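Can't paste images in this forum, so I'm doing it all in text. The chain is below; anyone willing to post the predicted structure tokens underneath?
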Amino acid sequence: MARDATKLTPFRQQYIALLKNPRGAEFVVTVYSSKKPDKVAVVVNVKNNSASESWSLLETRLVGEQSGEQKPFAIRATKETWAPGGETGQIAVVLDGNAFDLKSGGERLVLELFRRGSGIREAWVFLDRTVVGL
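Text version of the structure:
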């Protein structure tokens, strides 16, 4: 997923969102669900449009929107740092469908990316179990 080889995976695209921030980073967030409703993948294409500052990931969180409970996930990135001037790369996150806690109705989740240095949340996406096929 992190190497943009989604055709080689058992996932199908659900939706895409574009996020831009004033410090120059641009994020294209694509959400995928597995053909069996048991996994969700989120691929974040990062482009660092800043003319002078590098961009790197400090922390990634997956939490229940209401409960704030942290959920498990796997993460892989193609880079540790994105150089200024338009360098691009991907961050891929995969989570199990059980993270939605289907027994209690299926809480909406929030996937958040925080930038190293400032600690500011730079990108986020809400994941609803119905949108991703669960």
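Residues 1 and 9 are 8 Å apart (CA to CA). The longest strand covers residues 11-20.
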